[in-house]
């Protein structure tokens, strides 16, 4: 049995089921949405949906997820009708709603299955509605006649293989009666019976059978189950041969084979079919569970000669583990190559070998990264559904355009950006895009436009969400911020960009009313928090009445960064190399101190503030004279800061580890992104440039 | 070991059948995800027996069956069907499929069927 005995024994199958079904569901959703958009279901689309439902039905039945299987079965039925009858009065939007509801149900159940819960969703109500919809369709399409299988061939004339030629009748020496019982649960007993009849044709053409309407009448299945399938034949075959023949039947549970003494008796069958020949039974062998010994041939070693498999699915935890290990290896490599014991030694061959090792580790690292990369397309295409649902509810018209969906990001990051993205799209439709009338009044096209774009920018990926709605008003934001006491600077000092970024602060909401979708004031800051959690940043740009652009900048990957190690006193810190612009020793005349005591440095006519790390982290034994140390200029989001440290230690790839929970819980330390292990085994704190700059 | 070719568009079904069969001493020599590929692989791999899904894109199981039977009238083919496909199954039998199995099925059933068909 596939499942039942417990899912643990069938992990790979369950994984495959989840993987494939999720994919199919996505494909299905796309198909429905694009059909709805073009407001018609093309035969291709109908066929595709039918096929997907058919596959899901089969797979989930194998895994005994009966509610999914039943639902899929009914949707399959519905699309079968659509495919065969091509009714022309389909209400596209009702149909889409119904199927999407089914899609949602399966999604929820899949979530449960993924989490190891019982897939126990109640589906009967939805099924009733699907049935109802189908019966309405059938009723309104009565003119086209009742549903008919196209494959259904007229079976009359195939039922009896009795030769008209009477003379031939006498040729056959023997007559048999066979009563065949099939194993319970083998399904489609009538077709099984048909198979036997079909095969009998090679032996004789004198065949009679009961029930005789095995194809057309579905009740025949019941009769066969209850009373067995009775066959009368005349043939030259011997009893043994006939017995062997019947024994070959698949799912045979029980066979009674009787040789009839009186050959002529058979003639009556065409007229008197029922009260037949219980007399003269010669031999009645009966068997149960045929060929039991064949089952013994099992339990051989599983031969995994999967010579044709080019793609395998790997569970994400395994990849995470691999990533961790590669991280450890990078550290271990540094520990060997930069081992303090080697200091001052002349080691040409060692260095050569070390370089080779270094090349291989970085190759492995790239490879592991690339394995973990997934295109954004799935995440992006989910937005179609949101746009659709929102537009329906809010009665707006919005076109969603997707660009660069093939851009790849680390799998873990994708999981973090899906929700924020959804939120942003909702915001854009709810708050951004105006109603059709408003848009026409302003001379815009009646249907709004949202563009979702992804592109690579160095070690980051930019995700840009652009709408052509009403944009953000500086005054409104300031007013709101004032009301909620979120302003900490004079309003006139703030640039437009700074004002716009106020909407990212917790507790900020410009929407007066709360709709079902957005505007609860917990919006943008959650987006910011999610994006920052993966080391990304959010920025807002907007032109009043022209639209809003929100840009998410997210790193390609989380785990390993190029870092510059710096020393402050006895402590070591790591800066992401990507943020470093330059480093230099300051000259005396460049340092300026403002009336508040803040230090600045003049570089090429530009003034930058200086941050002394030893002051921020209260480090002793470090050089306090700015001329003995080094200034490192870092940049993030067009903001620049000069960090003062004792010296640069060197560049190294570092594996980012989160700060231990007890430190995080104890105190939120500003400006730290995490920590890492150095080659000599000591710990370095990774500085969070954004945090430092915004401090 | 008897060589099996699995033709099914659902990766899950291919995997299920493969696992069931390999556990019972069959060698799955190939998998195909639609009829066209299936026919090609049949010609190349010459398996002892084929399990054939009925509903597949580009070329259905029925068409693939006919194609394979044309190439090799002795080909042993077991159709894998689902409830509600009675007519197509019957058609497949008429076209020379040896037998069929209805999803969901149990391991012992598919093994029994294959063994029986192979014994003919």
Automatic annotation (TrEMBL), chain A:
For molecular function, the Gene Ontology terms on record are: ATP binding; phosphorelay sensor kinase activity
Q: Which residues carry this modification: Phosphohistidine?
A: 54
Which PROSITE patterns is this protein grouped with?
CHEW, HIS_KIN, HPT
Q: Which intervals hold domain Histidine kinase?
A: 354-558
Report which reactions are catalysed by this protein.
ATP + protein L-histidine = ADP + protein N-phospho-L-histidine
Major location (coarse): cytoplasm
Q: Residues annotated as region Disordered?
A: 283-304
- Which GO terms of the cellular component aspect does the record hold? cytoplasm
Q: Where in the cell is it found?
A: Cytoplasm
Q: Which residues form the CheW-like domain?
A: 560-695
InterPro entries linked to this entry = Bact_Chemotaxis_CheA, CheA-like_dim, CheA-like_homodim_sf, CheA-like_P2_sf, CheA_P2-bd, CheW-like_dom_sf, CheW-lke_dom, CheY-binding_CheA
List UniProt keywords, sorted A-Z: ATP-binding, Chemotaxis, Cytoplasm, Kinase, Nucleotide-binding, Phosphoprotein, Transferase, Two-component regulatory system
Tell me, what is an example of a GO biological process annotation in this record?
Answer: chemotaxis
EC numbers, comma separated = 2.7.13.3
Q: Where is the composition biased (Basic and acidic residues)?
A: 286-302
What name does the UniProt record give this protein? Chemotaxis protein CheA
Q: Which organism is it from?
A: Anaerovirgula multivorans
Q: Source organism lineage?
A: Bacteria, Bacillati, Bacillota, Clostridia, Peptostreptococcales
TrEMBL record, chain B:
Tell me where in this chain the Response regulatory domain is found: 3-118
Q: Does the keyword GTP-binding apply?
A: no
Q: Which Pfam families match?
A: Response_reg (PF00072)
The record, for InterPro entries, names: CheY-like_superfamily (IPR011006), Sig_transdc_resp-reg_receiver (IPR001789), ST_Response_Regulator (IPR052048)
Which PANTHER family does the record associate with it?
A: TWO-COMPONENT RESPONSE REGULATOR (PTHR43228), TWO-COMPONENT RESPONSE REGULATOR ARR22 (PTHR43228:SF1)
- Function text: May play the central regulatory role in sporulation. It may be an element of the effector pathway responsible for the activation of sporulation genes in response to nutritional stress. Spo0A may act in concert with spo0H (a sigma factor) to control the expression of some genes that are critical to the sporulation process.
Output this protein's name.
Stage 0 sporulation protein A homolog
Q: What is the lineage of its organism?
A: Bacteria, Bacillati, Bacillota, Clostridia, Peptostreptococcales
């Amino acid at each position: 049995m596939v499942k039942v005995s417990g899912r643990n024994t069938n992990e790979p199958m369950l994984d495959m089921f989840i993987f494939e079904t999720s994919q199919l569901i996505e494909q299905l959703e796309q198909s429905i949405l694009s059909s709805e958009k073009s407001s018609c279901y093309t035969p291709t689309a109908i066929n595709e949906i039918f096929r997907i439902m058919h596959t899901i039905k089969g797979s989930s039945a194998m895994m005994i997820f009966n509610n999914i299987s039943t639902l899929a079965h009914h949707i399959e039925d519905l699309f079968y009708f659509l495919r065969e009858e091509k009714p022309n009065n389909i209400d596209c939007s009702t149909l889409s709603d119904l199927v999407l509801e089914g899609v949602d149900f399966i999604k929820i159940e899949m979530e449960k299955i993924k989490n190891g819960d019982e897939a126990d969703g109640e589906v009967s109500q939805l099924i009733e509605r699907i049935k109802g919809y189908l019966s309405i369709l059938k009723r309104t399409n009565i003119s086209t006649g009742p549903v008919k299988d196209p494959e259904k061939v007229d079976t009359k004339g195939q039922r009896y293989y009795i030769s008209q030629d009477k003379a031939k009748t006498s040729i056959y020496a023997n007559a048999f009666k066979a009563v065949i019982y099939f194993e319970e649960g083998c399904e489609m007993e009538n077709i099984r019976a048909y198979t036997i009849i079909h095969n009998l044709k090679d032996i004789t053409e004198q065949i009679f059978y009961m029930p005789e309407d095995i194809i057309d009448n579905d009740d025949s299945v019941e009769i066969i189950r209850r009373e067995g399938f009775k066959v009368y034949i005349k043939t030259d075959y011997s009893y043994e041969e006939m017995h062997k023949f019947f024994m070959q039947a698949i799912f045979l549970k029980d066979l009674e084979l009787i040789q009839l003494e009186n050959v002529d008796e058979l003639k009556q069958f065409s007229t008197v079919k029922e009260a037949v020949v219980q007399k003269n039974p010669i031999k009645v062998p009966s068997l149960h569970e045929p060929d039991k010994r064949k089952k013994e041939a099992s339990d051989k070693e599983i031969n995994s000669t999967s010579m044709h498999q080019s793609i395998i699915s790997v569970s994400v935890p395994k990849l995470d583990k691999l990533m961790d290990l590669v991280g450890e290896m990078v550290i271990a490599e540094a520990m060997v190559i930069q081992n303090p014991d080697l200091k001052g030694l002349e080691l040409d061959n060692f260095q050569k070998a070390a370089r080779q090792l270094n090349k291989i580790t970085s190759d492995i690292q790239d490879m592991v990264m690339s394995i973990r990369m997934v295109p954004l397309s799935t995440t992006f295409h989910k937005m179609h559904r949101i746009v659709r649902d929102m537009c329906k509810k809010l009665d707006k018209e919005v076109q969603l355009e997707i660009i660069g969906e093939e851009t790849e990001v680390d799998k873990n990051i994708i999981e973090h950006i899906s929700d924020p993205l959804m939120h942003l799209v909702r915001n854009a439709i709810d708050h951004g895009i105006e109603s059709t009338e408003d848009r026409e009044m302003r001379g815009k096209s009646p249907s709004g436009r949202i563009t979702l774009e992804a592109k690579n920018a160095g070690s980051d990926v930019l995700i840009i969400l652009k709408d052509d709605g009403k944009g953000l008003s500086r005054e409104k934001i300031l007013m709101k911020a004032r009301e909620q006491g979120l302003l900490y600077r004079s309003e006139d000092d703030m640039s437009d960009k700074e004002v716009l970024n106020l909407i990212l602060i917790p507790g900020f909401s410009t929407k007066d009313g709360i709709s079902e979708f957005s505007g609860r004031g917990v919006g943008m800051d959650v987006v910011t928090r999610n994006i920052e959690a993966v080391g990304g940043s959010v920025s807002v740009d907007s032109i009043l009445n022209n639209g809003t652009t929100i840009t998410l900048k997210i790193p390609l990957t989380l785990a390993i960064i190029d870092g510059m190690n710096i020393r402050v006193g006895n402590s070591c810190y790591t800066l992401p190399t990507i943020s470093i612009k330059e480093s230099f020793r300051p000259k005396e005349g460049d340092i300026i101190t403002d009336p508040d005591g803040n230090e600045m440095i003049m570089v090429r006519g530009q003034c930058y503030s200086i941050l002394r790390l030893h002051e921020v982290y209260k480090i002793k034994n470090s050089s306090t004279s700015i001329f003995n140390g080094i200034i490192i200029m870092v940049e993030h989001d067009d903001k620049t800061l000069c960090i003062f440290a004792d010296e640069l230690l060197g560049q190294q790839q570092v594996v980012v580890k989160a700060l231990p929970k007890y430190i995080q819980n104890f105190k939120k330390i500003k400006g730290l992104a995490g920590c890492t292990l150095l080659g000599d085994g000591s710990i370095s704190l990774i500085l969070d440039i954004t945090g430092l700059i915004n401090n | 070991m008897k060589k099996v070719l699995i033709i099914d568009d659902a990766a899950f079904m291919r995997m299920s059948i493969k696992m069931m069969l390999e556990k019972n001493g069959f060698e799955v020599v190939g998998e195909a995800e639609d009829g066209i590929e299936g026919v090609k692989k049949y010609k190349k791999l010459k398996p002892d027996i084929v399990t054939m899904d009925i509903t597949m894109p580009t070329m259905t199981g029925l068409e693939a069956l006919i194609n394979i039977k044309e190439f090799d009238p002795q080909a042993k083919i077991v159709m894998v069907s689902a409830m509600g496909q009675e007519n197509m199954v019957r058609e497949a039998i008429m076209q020379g499929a040896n037998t069929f199995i209805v999803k969901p099925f149990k391991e012992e059933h598919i093994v029994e069927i294959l063994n029986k068909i192979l014994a003919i």
